[in-house]
Structure formats: structure tokens, C-alpha cells
Specification:
Helix content: 40-55%
CATH class: Alpha Beta
Oligomer: single chain
Bound molecules: zinc ion
Radius of gyration: 24 Å
Shape: elongated
CATH superfamily: Ribonuclease Z/Hydroxyacylglutathione hydrolase-like
Strand content: 15-25%
Number of strands: 14
Order of helices and strands: HHHHHHEEEHEHEHHEEEEEEEHEEH
Distance between the termini: 59 Å
CATH topology: Metallo-beta-lactamase, Chain A
């Protein structure tokens, strides 16, 4: 009897010893691999592997605004959220909480470090002189989901445009008035309701033309439905939801114009919505990415006609091919840079 117990203990100790040895070997192998490949590359490759095998660990993706179910759903090509009532209810209940908590990853020190590096690099690059006086830019946070809204004016012509007026039309018009700007256009990065609630008030007082990618035209017309779907019906008056159709449909390669002059290049970056676009103001090295690219995250793809595959292609295939020094101004949350996102954004 005693012999059996002693043999069992020896066997268990041997197993324990074996596990410890294997653990040490594993740690050494991973250590050598990371040293060889570089930490960022290794993490990217590991992430890619996890994605390919659909073994998405929710902890890794926590804070990226995308969950495992959404990725698997996208890969099954099930675009139609309306056919998934359970998911729909979850999204409606959690949207505001998720947006507030998950995508607002604030790491000011790192942003400052990036911006300082960027400024140094830009100073060195004589071919790309930066004139910050080129445009007058004001930033306000608007609407029920805290959309970043930008008023960009040309001090010479005194004409201005607004990107994503998510609300506060009076504030936008006051800024224009104070600076002596005439608001001539409204550029939308996409047609989700949170980026559009200021349109009614602006069009009531000005003749600013509305610019939108045509692939978001259906979403644009669904404004009242979107507001109802997300449960904000009581926050917005019915008349504010009846807005004129877009005046101009924009597409890849077009330019954002101020006073008839091209000031930014338009990139079609579908995924968050079919007609999502980014505006790249080359002269001032700034890109407005809407909900396509956030700091360390990307926009959700479980809404109408969203696609994870598309947003991955847009971000990796288009935005990450651009210059590291470009400053990124998303539709929600803090700013970033292409260089920072290339090494810190594991959402795509
Ligand atoms: Zn959106
Ligand atoms: Zn948004």
C-alpha cells in the first residue's frame, strides 16, 4: 500500500518536473523568437494567427470595439444585422457604453511623444514644408455620441467647411462668425446618425453643400430609422431628422474643396459603412478618418452593410501604406498618427 502511494508521488513529481521544464523551454523559444523578429512584428504575427484560426481571444480584443462574434459573423458573410435580433438588442443597449469606454483609449504621453517625433521629422523634410497658417482649424465634440467635428477655414478666402457636424449647429456657426468665415460645405466621413445631427441646423441658416460618398446614400436616407434604432428618438426633434439630400456624391480620388481649390484628397475606405471615406489634407499633413480608424482601434462592422474584411483591407491596404508622419484625426476619441497605428493597432 505504502509502495503504491510512494510510486504515485514520484510519478506526480516527475510530471510536475516535466511541466516546469517544458514551460522553461517554451519561454526560451518565445524569447529568442521575439528577440529575432522584434516585439511589434511578433505580436502582429501572433495576432494574425489567432485571427486566421478564428480563436479570437476576447481579452486581446477588449478595448478594440470589435468582439469575437462580430468577426466570425463577418467572415460568414452575414452582413444583415436585421436578421440577428439578439445581436441587435445587445448593440442597442451597449452602444453608448461601448463607445464611451472601449474606444477612448487615452495615452497622452505616447501621443505627445509621437507628435514630437513627427514634428522633428517634418522639419527635416524640406520637400514637404508645413504651413500651419494654411488653414484655421477648430475642433468641437458634438452630439449624443461625442463625435469629433472639425471646422476648417481658409484665412485668405474666408470660406470654411465642416467635417461631421454631429450636433451643435449654433456653436459651429458661432465659430465661423467669430473668425469671419462663410460656411460653404459639409463633408461627411460617412452617414451614421451621430455624425449628421447638426446638418438640419446648419442648412436652416446657410446654403452649405452636403458632400457624401454615394455608397452611403441609403444610410443617409435612413437617418430617422438610425436614431430610433439606437434609442435616441427622444433626444432629437422630428424636424431635425428631415434633412435635404446630399448635393454632391464624392468618390475615391476626388478632392475636398475650399473656395474652388482642392485642399484634401478623398480616400474611399469602406468597412465601417459602405461609403466611409477619409480626407487627407496633404499640405498640413492631417487626415480625418471618421469611424474607419481610431486611436488603437477601428470602427465597428456589425452595423448596416459593415464588413470586417473590408475595413481590414481599407486600413491595412490603404491607410497603413501612407506616410508614418500623417496625423490621424478620428471621428471619436483622441488623435493619433499613421506610424503609431501601424505598430499599436491590433484590431485589423
Ligand atoms: Zn459610424
Ligand atoms: Zn461615429
Amino acid at each position: 500500500m505504502n509502495n503504491i502511494i510512494i510510486t504515485t508521488i514520484i510519478k506526480m513529481k516527475f510530471k510536475f518536473f516535466l511541466i516546469v521544464i517544458l514551460g522553461i523551454i517554451n519561454a526560451i523559444v518565445i524569447g529568442i523568437y521575439i528577440q529575432k523578429q522584434g516585439f511589434s512584428n511578433s505580436v502582429l504575427q501572433i495576432k494574425e494567427l489567432i485571427h486566421k484560426n478564428k480563436l479570437v481571444n476576447e481579452k486581446i480584443l477588449k478595448g478594440t470595439y470589435i468582439n469575437k462574434d462580430e468577426i466570425v459573423k463577418e467572415e460568414n458573410n452575414e452582413d444583415d444585422i436585421l436578421s440577428k435580433p439578439k445581436q441587435q438588442i445587445k448593440n442597442r443597449d451597449n452602444i453608448k457604453k461601448e463607445i464611451k469606454s472601449d474606444i477612448y483609449i487615452d495615452n497622452k504621453t505616447e501621443i505627445d511623444k509621437d507628435i514630437n517625433n513627427k514634428t522633428e521629422n517634418v522639419k527635416k523634410d524640406k520637400n514637404k514644408p508645413i504651413s500651419m497658417a494654411e488653414f484655421d482649424i477648430s475642433h468641437i465634440v458634438t452630439g449624443p455620441l461625442d463625435v469629433n467635428c472639425y471646422i476648417i477655414g481658409d484665412p485668405k478666402s474666408k470660406k470654411a467647411l465642416v467635417i461631421d457636424p454631429g450636433g451643435s449647429p449654433e456653436e459651429i456657426l458661432n465659430i465661423c462668425k467669430e473668425k469671419g468665415f462663410e460656411l460653404e460645405s459639409i463633408y461627411l466621413t460617412h452617414a451614421h446618425f451621430d455624425h449628421m445631427l447638426g446638418i438640419y441646423g446648419l442648412r436652416e441658416k446657410t446654403e452649405a453643400k452636403i458632400y457624401l460618398h454615394e455608397d452611403d446614400a441609403a444610410l443617409y436616407r435612413m437617418l430617422p430609422l438610425q436614431v430610433k434604432f439606437f434609442g435616441f428618438g427622444s433626444h432629437v426633434s422630428t424636424k431635425e431628422l428631415i434633412i435635404p439630400d446630399p448635393d454632391v456624391y464624392i468618390k475615391e480620388g476626388d478632392h475636398v474643396m475650399i473656395n474652388g481649390e482642392p485642399v484634401a484628397k478623398i480616400y474611399h475606405t469602406p468597412g465601417h459603412s459602405p461609403g466611409s471615406v477619409c480626407f487627407h489634407f496633404e499640405k498640413i499633413n492631417k487626415m480625418y478618418t471618421g469611424d474607419t480608424l481610431f486611436r488603437s482601434s477601428v470602427g465597428r462592422t456589425d452595423l448596416w452593410q459593415g464588413s470586417y474584411e473590408q475595413i481590414r483591407n481599407s486600413v491595412r491596404g490603404k491607410l497603413f501604406k501612407m506616410d508614418d508622419n500623417i496625423e490621424v484625426y478620428p471621428g471619436h476619441g483622441p488623435s493619433s498618427s499613421i506610424g503609431y497605428e501601424k505598430t499599436h493597432n491590433f484590431s485589423v
